[in-house]
């Protein structure tokens, strides 16, 4: 099993190596001695990091520093997502109820429209989202270097779609709703199909599947992807949503809002997590021992065990359960095999740390089962969350502008001291 060096373990805990060895001497964390020095079990370090995070409260000058222990820096009103009692609600509806039941058509298109229409429930027969300017966006994506990642492709698509939309600066609610639906559909249609692709009359999930996987797009797989899109449409004030709302507070148009959200989403602790989990599951699929694969993934991330431990859900991420149940009901051999691998990994993590799966684990299971690229999960995440970002932008447009511009508390050197030191230096130079 891959081990962490003392420096890596200390960095994960956010302490000096001297403090790390103090923990060792007190029996709080174990180490192994070897020819290259001390080595630490990454899962043990992660377990201790979680325990320490809950029990400490950093302070500054005797006062607790807001946000230093993971608590919110601010509270922002939202009428979109509610996380309470280990459940996620979207506009007052449990997110699981938004997913299409077996035999029903995909519902993501209807959910996106519903975010802007303010109706009670999106169960009306959905009309597929229609894009505009996707051909120009596709040409821009074709000009990117081979192997460009999901973030680069999506960001280029947003820029191209914005350039051709005359309504992008119209911030009236009805215009924002039209722009948002075109934007979400355009992100999908701008991506190059892997094989035969359905036309614009097909639901978004079906069009997206043809751009992520070369496997046949049967109804079960389409509904699985559709469920993932719905489960990821919004999640309260995630880092990317905060970035999107800050842009909207400055009256950025919806395309710029989505670009701001993408910048925060493309990060190791947010939208890119599923790629790390994808690599971990592939390792196990190719014969690596699950415990060793988990340790290696944890060591690579240096930010916890990817795919496990969503702090907002002490009892487990309901989105992960919903997507797992949808995949388990498929009767698909590939999905069943990927779920078995995830269960083996989950057993190791739960036994060693007590952490439960997040939506990122199940998103990676879906990309492995669908024989997709490692960053396909980030693409699904970004397309789904773009709708949520636009809904947050619409809310922000109705509030005081620039209200999300915080005031910094300066903690640097005293300007008077700097000027005094500079004057002394000049005087010393003149006296030479």
TrEMBL record:
SUPFAM superfamilies linked to this entry: Citrate synthase, Putative DNA-binding domain
Lineage: Bacteria, Bacillati, Actinomycetota, Actinomycetes, Micrococcales
Pfam families: Citrate_synt
InterPro entries: Citrate_synth-like_lrg_a-sub, Citrate_synth-like_sm_a-sub, Citrate_synthase, Citrate_synthase_sf, DNA-bd_dom_put_sf
Protein's recorded name: citrate synthase (unknown stereospecificity)
Keywords from the named record: Transferase
Known pathway: Carbohydrate metabolism; tricarboxylic acid cycle
Segment forming the signal sequence: none
Record family assignment: Belongs to the citrate synthase family.
EC number(s) given by UniProt: 2.3.3.16
């Amino acid at each position: 099993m891959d081990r962490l060096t003392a420096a890596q373990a200390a960095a994960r805990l956010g302490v000096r190596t001297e403090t790390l060895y103090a923990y060792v001497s007190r029996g709080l964390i174990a180490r192994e001695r070897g020819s290259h020095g001390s080595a630490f079990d990454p899962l043990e370090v992660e377990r201790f990091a979680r325990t320490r995070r809950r029990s400490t409260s950093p302070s500054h000058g005797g006062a607790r520093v807001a946000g230093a222990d993971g608590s919110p820096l601010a509270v922002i009103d939202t009428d979109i997502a509610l996380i309470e009692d280990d459940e996620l609600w979207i506009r007052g509806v449990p997110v699981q109820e938004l997913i299409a039941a077996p035999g029903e058509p995909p519902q993501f298109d209807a959910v996106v429209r519903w975010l802007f229409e303010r109706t009670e429930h999106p169960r009306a027969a959905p009309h597929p989202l229609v894009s505009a300017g996707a051909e120009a966006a596709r040409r821009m994506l074709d000009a990117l270097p081979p192997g460009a990642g999901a973030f680069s492709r999506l960001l280029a698509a947003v820029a191209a779609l914005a350039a051709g939309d005359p309504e992008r600066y119209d911030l009236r609610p009805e215009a924002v709703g039209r722009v948002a639906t075109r934007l979400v559909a355009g992100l999908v249609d701008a991506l190059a199909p892997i094989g035969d692709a359905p036309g614009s009359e097909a639901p978004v999930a079906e069009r997206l599947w043809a751009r992520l996987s070369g496997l046949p797009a049967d109804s079960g797989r389409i509904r699985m992807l559709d469920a993932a899109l719905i489960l990821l449409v919004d999640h309260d004030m995630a880092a990317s949503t905060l970035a999107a709302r800050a842009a909207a507070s400055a009256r950025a148009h919806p395309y710029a809002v989505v670009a701001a959200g993408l910048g925060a989403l493309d990060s190791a602790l947010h939208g890119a997590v599923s790629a790390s989990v994808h690599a971990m599951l592939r390792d196990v699929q190719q014969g690596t021992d699950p415990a060793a694969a988990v340790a290696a993934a944890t060591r690579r991330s240096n930010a916890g065990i990817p795919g496990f431990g969503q702090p907002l859900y002490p009892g487990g991420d309901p989105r992960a359960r919903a997507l797992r149940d949808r995949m388990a009901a498929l009767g698909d051999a590939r999905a069943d095999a990927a779920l078995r691998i995830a269960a083996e990994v989950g057993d190791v993590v739960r036994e060693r740390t007590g952490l439960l799966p997040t939506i990122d684990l199940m998103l990676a299971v879906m990309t492995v089962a669908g024989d997709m690229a490692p960053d396909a999960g980030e693409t699904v995440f970004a397309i789904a969350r773009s709708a949520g970002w636009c809904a947050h932008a619409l809310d922000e447009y109705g509030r005081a502008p620039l209200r999300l511009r915080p005031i910094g508390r300066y903690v640097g050197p005293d300007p008077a001291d700097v000027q005094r030191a500079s004057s002394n230096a000049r005087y010393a130079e003149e006296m030479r």
